Amino acid sequence: MKNFNKLKIAFLSIIAAALFSIPSFAQKAKPTKFLDNKKFNVQFYEVKPTGRGKAQPSLLFLKAGKIEADLMYEKLSLPPVAMRVILDSTYTEDEVLMHMVTFEADHAEDKNDYHWEVTLINYDIEGTVVQMKSGLEKKKYEFSGTEKTKK
Question: Which residue, 3, 35, 59, 112, is the most exposed by fewest CB within 10 angstroms?
Answer without folding.
Answer: 3
